[in-house]
Amino acid sequence: MGNCFGCPDAAAADEKPTSPSKGTTKQKAVSGETGRGGGGGRQEYRKWPSTGSGGGETGRVLDVPRLRVFTLAELRAVTRGFKPEMVLGEGGFGMVYKGWADERTLNPAKSSAGVVVAVKKLNPESVQGLHEWQSEVNFLGRLVHPNLVKLLGYCREERELLLVYEFMPKGSLENHLFRRGAFEPLSWSLRLKIAIGAARGLAFLHSSERQIIYRDFKASNILLDVDYTPKLSDFGLAKNGPVAGRSHVTTRVIGTYGYAAPEYVATGHLYVKSDVYCFGVVLLELLTGLRAHDLNRPSHQQNLVEWARPYIAGGRKLTGLMDQRLAGDYPPKAAARAAKLADRCLCGDPKSRPSMDDVVVALQEIESMGTARPAAKLPPRAPVAHRSPHRNPSKLR
Ligand SMILES: Nc1ncnc2c1ncn2[C@@H]1O[C@H](COP(=O)(O)OP(=O)(O)OP(=O)(O)O)[C@@H](O)[C@H]1O
Ligand SMILES: [Mg+2]
Q1: How far apart are CA 82 and CA 63, in angstroms?
Q2: Which of 117, 226, 353, 358 could form a disulfide with 276 if both were Cys (CB 3.0 to 4.6 A apart)?
Q3: Ligand 1 centroid – CA 68 distance (Å)
């Protein structure tokens, strides 16, 4: 869920202070079709039946979470005893396991008879786990939208806290963008599909009656369905938007290096448009194939936004910045439009950033510009001194 990069004086009146739970740097396990075990052997994937339905394209917010309450024994059976082979990945909250449940009752099922689910189990050392677990249940448990991961149920027993989700077979966008070797490069059209879907998910949150600020928009929280439909996961840091004509909520500063909006980091003032800034960072990652923050790059390039903004603002040549894994297979004009859009999202003044609805429209226009490969020869690669294929070691929580 979220990664703390410090909690300055802007500490929140509206949020219990909690210590960082991911104090160490670590390499996460890989999930997805080519990722770690997840039950051993290739399993026929059956899509979760209710995914994307019920809410339609626009989504809806339920009055109360409608979730299955699991016992620990049931989830032990679902995940085959939380076996290491069932691990899909690991985040700040804890391990994520693959399992099987009956489609209708969600009772534990044999693999051949059930649908695949993902079970997130709190690491007992996670200090902020309870707060994040409650947010996940209260926010995600009430939200239905094709671009939000479906929370199916939860378990709270003894000191164990677990969450059960629909399984996302292609794993996280982070893995596809940054784990070279393990995953095929994403094409231009898939990158746009992912950007548009993720933008729709955020636009839905921002347009709900009581706006919801997601606060943790980053590549690892965008999970991909079998057809690369993106879905936002991890609502542990989500917050209700401002009320009574206010522009922002004041809260403890928590997030991930490289993604959080400058006004939020500096003051603890969180705007709906702070999410738009995070979106701009991810759009930049999609264009460049570079992590938002990477200590393996030379110091002036470690923060992607600081380094890349002169290029995307149009002052310098964009071609050298584009992800080499695209092999030049994208329409340059569309890429330039996307870079301009990222630049607008990254505006220092939150008010000057576009709304997520505007972002969706702009991305759809960019998509309509086609995917044709230009006949021109490929450009030389950008001045990136070192590209780490691994998880960013600078990530803190
Ligand atoms: N519903 C799911 N279906 C398939 N894989 C999942 C699912 N949820 C999580 N995973 C896998 O488990 C990994 C860990 O997810 P988790 O959300 O706990 O951490 P994270 O988002 O990577 O990091 P952070 O804690 O910083 O948010 C993800 O990268 C993903 O690969
Ligand atoms: Mg996550």
Answers
A1: 33
A2: 353
A3: 21
Q: What is the DSSP string of 335-353?
A: HHHHHHHHHHHT-SSGGGS
At residue 311's C-alpha, the angle toward residues 325 and 383, to 5°, is 55
- CA proximity to 136, closest of 90, 93, 179, 85: 93
Query: Annotated catalytic sites, by residue?
Result: 216
Ligand 1 binding pocket, CB closer than 6 Å:
1, 3, 28, 31, 88-93, 96, 118, 120, 149, 165, 167-168, 171-172, 175, 220-221, 223, 233-234
Q: For residue 210, what is the DSSP state?
A: S
Q: What is the DSSP letter of 252?
A: -
Res. 67 pLDDT band, cuts 50 70 90: very high
Residue nearest to atom 28 of ligand 1 (CA): 89
Tell me which range, 12-26, 171-185, 368-382, is most confidently predicted by mean pLDDT: 171-185
If you average pLDDT over residues 121-138, what whole number do you get? 88
**Percentage, residues of the chain above pLDDT 70:** 79
CA-wise closest residue to 224 among 186, 278, 258, 256: 186
Q: What does the domain layout of the chain look like in residue ranges?
A: 16-166, 173-367
What does CATH list as the number for 173-367? 1.10.510.10
Among 161, 207, 174, smallest CA distance to 58 is for: 207
More confident residue, 330 or 389: 330
Q: Whole-angstrom Cα distance, residue 171 to residue 192? A: 17
pLDDT score at 52: 41
Which residue matches tokens 């869920």? Answer: 1
Burial class (CB in 10 A: 0-12, 13-18, 19+), 111: middle
Give the whole-angstrom CA distance, residue 309 versus residue 295. 18
Average pLDDT over residues 137-155: 96
Sort strands 160-166 and 115-122 into parallel, antiparallel or unpaired. antiparallel
Terminal CA-CA length for the chain:
10
**C-alpha span between 78 and 307 (Å, rounded):** 46
Which CATH code, of 3.40.1740.10, 3.40.50.20, 3.30.200.20, 3.40.50.11540, is assigned to 16-166? 3.30.200.20
User: Looking at residues 250-269, what average pLDDT do you find?
Assistant: 89
Ligand approaching nearest to the C-alpha of 91: 1
Atom 11 (ligand 1): residue with closest C-alpha? 89
